[in-house]
Write a structure and sequence with these properties.
This protein is an alpha+beta fold. The chain has two domains: 134 residues, no CATH class; 158 residues, C8orf32 fold (Roll). The protein has six helices and 17 strands. The chain has a five-stranded antiparallel beta sheet. Strands 4-5-2-15-16 form a five-stranded antiparallel beta sheet, with no helix packed on it. A five-stranded antiparallel beta sheet has the order 7-13-12-10-14, covered by helices on one side. α2 packs across α5 and α4 crosses α5. The chain is globular and about 60 Å long. The two termini are 20 Å apart.
């Protein structure tokens, strides 16, 4: 609690710097976030991601179901809430202080983990060839990362029509050249890892900058790659949607974000039937061992 009070005393409220785009908040942001799940029936098993504090995000969980059990996901250390529902709504309420993210020093002891292929993020000859061509003439890892960022931005278009998008399938993104944020960043991560640049995935929500409270329609995800002893944040799908911010989104994540989990192919115990979990942002709900759709609602209110 002492650490949270110290952060709040710094006045971590929404900070708009001169010249900032209306969709981003630079500096700091502070808000309340509510994650609500309505399970379809009594006896549902539910897995819900739990946000964690780090150097850029101070999280206080103000309310959670008393009967829920906290699990530690073993692939990336995420926290997950597990419970068996009595058919009642499940609600988690957070208070969050978030800072704009720029390149930051990271622990290099675990870099090998971020070079390994994943089920939907391979590092095969196709990606090595594409990445090698994209970075030709670049020397440093930072310059190579920028070349891969530009390659994905030029090659892909944000488009959620058809089928196959939204799974974070790097091969799909490579072939179809369209998709959402998971597809953009899966493709980028596959390219980076294929030529020896560690890269990793994170997912959560964008907190609207244009209003101080309301509902959030859906999730958002982003990536980081390792260069010159630092993790460099990138958001290529947002750069595609707002080309005027393409330079900003290479090296920055704005303050109006809420990160829930990191990584792919997540493993928890007890495990849902779809384990390993592709990525975790929406709740996983099962009845009699079969996945079912649950109603969700995500809302925020900015603190003043």
């Amino acid at each position: 609690m002492r650490k949270w009070v110290a952060l709040s005393a710094l006045g971590l409220v929404a900070t708009y710097l001169a010249g900032a785009h209306p969709s981003i908040i630079k500096g700091n942001d502070e808000y309340e976030f509510t994650y609500r799940v309505i399970a379809p029936k009594e006896g549902s098993r539910i897995w819900i991601p739990l946000a964690r504090s780090d150097a850029f995000q101070m999280v206080r969980l103000d309310s959670r179901p008393a009967q829920a059990k906290r699990l530690k996901e073993r692939s990336h250390g995420n926290d997950v809430l597990y419970l068996e529902s009595a058919g009642e709504p499940v609600e988690l309420r957070y208070t969050v202080a978030r800072k704009e993210k720029t390149a930051f020093a990271g622990d290099d002891n675990a870099l090998s983990k971020y070079l390994q292929p994943e089920r939907l993020v391979p590092t095969n000859k196709t990606f090595r060839t594409l990445a090698s061509d994209a970075v030709r003439g670049r020397v440093t890892a930072l310059d190579k990362g920028r070349a891969l960022y530009d390659h994905v931005l030029e090659r892909m278009k944000y488009d959620k029509t058809g089928t196959g998008w939204g799974r974070g399938d790097a091969q799909y993104a490579c072939d179809v050249k369209t998709g959402n944020c998971t597809d953009f960043h899966a493709y980028f991560i596959a390219l980076a890892r294929s030529i020896g640049i560690p890269a990793r995935f994170a997912i959560g929500f964008t907190i609207p900058a244009e209003t101080n409270e309301g509902k959030i329609a859906g999730y958002h995800c982003w990536a980081e790659f390792y260069a010159d002893g630092k993790w460099v944040p990138v958001d290529i799908s947002e750069a595609d949607k707002t080309p005027e911010l393409a330079d900003y989104y290479f090296g920055h994540h704005p303050a109006n974000r809420f990160e829930l989990t990191q990584g792919r192919d997540l493993i928890v115990e007890p495990a849902p039937s779809n384990s390993p979990i592709n990525f975790l942002v929406y709740p996983i709900v099962e009845v009699d061992g079969k996945p079912v759709q649950a109603q969700t609602e995500f809302t925020f209110k900015r603190r003043k």
